[in-house]
Amino acid sequence: MMSSPAKFGDLADKIKTLAEKHGAKITGLPVNRCQEIDLGNGRRGMLWTDENGIEYFTFESKKSQDTIIFEFQNALDNAGMQRFKNLEYSKFTKLKEVGDRDIKDLGDQTKTKGFLLWGNVGTGKTTLAIQIAFRAIADSRSVALYRWQDLLSKARATMNTDTKDTLIDLVDPIKKADLFVLDELANKKRSNATDFETELFFDIVATRHGATSPMILTSNMSPKEIEQVYGSALVSRLLDRDYMEIIQFQGKDRRL
């Protein structure tokens, strides 16, 4: 298990000394009880307070909190996931599925290893994926965020002779992003995916797996069901324990 974030009280003197050395100012921001510390030279630290009033120094970023939120909300717009724009990104609700780990632990893991989050609808898979993605953006990592059906629609649209965008234009940024989040992988209408769907999905997964570039995948399908629809060659990469951590979400739909 990765270590939990250090309490601010343990780091306060070092942070303040560093801030003073750079002539930095500590300013409060009315966003999720966060404080932004400008450490100079484009470096920023961030403090936030949990529901018990305990302060943590959770990450450093070259971007301001406002910039991070602006960039991520644009990503949500492009992914058709506007309903998450009011999510309290820095407030992490503990989930039994991830044990004692917090959002810092989970975010740090995606620097080297991804997640396959599968299980019942409404159990928190997408919310967790988005909070981890926000953490990655805060760490100045590039994130590609898509819902599977939206990605398919955009991929098919590139086949239109009237469009200037090619499939390569769409897929290359996904392959090269530091973190790729693919939400709601599903295939409810057919027992098998089309050749186009399978080839698109396999191309992305195989490329990222080969480059050990992490991804987060959420699905209502089990790994076995994904294999039945998309094939064993793809699933063998998703089930690579060195590449992905598989977490099953159970329980009732929390939206009801």
Protein described:
This protein is an alpha/beta fold. It folds into 2 domains: 8-62, no CATH class; 69-249, P-loop containing nucleotide triphosphate hydrolases (Rossmann fold), CATH 3.40.50.300. It has 9 helices and 9 strands. It has helices spanning 8-21, 65-78, 103-109, 125-138, 148-157, 167-176, 195-210, 223-230, 232-238; strands spanning 26-29, 34-40, 43-49, 55-61, 114-119, 143-147, 179-185, 215-219, 244-249. The strands form 2 sheets. The chain has a 5-stranded parallel β-sheet, sandwiched between helices. Strands 1-2-3-4 form a 4-stranded antiparallel β-sheet, with helices on one face. A hairpin with a 4-residue loop joins strand 1 (26-29) and strand 2. Helix 3 (103-109) crosses helix 4 and helix 7 (195-210) packs parallel to helix 9. The chain is globular. The two termini are 33 Å apart. The model is unreliable at 1-11 and 26-33 (pLDDT under 50).
Quick rundown:
The chain is α/β, with parallel strands linked by helices and 256 residues long. The protein folds into 2 domains: 55 residues, no CATH class; 181 residues, P-loop containing nucleotide triphosphate hydrolases (Rossmann fold), CATH 3.40.50. It is built from 9 helices and 9 strands.
Labels describing this entry:
256 residues, alpha/beta, Rossmann fold, 2 domains, 5-stranded parallel β-sheet, 4-stranded antiparallel β-sheet, 9 helices, disordered N terminus
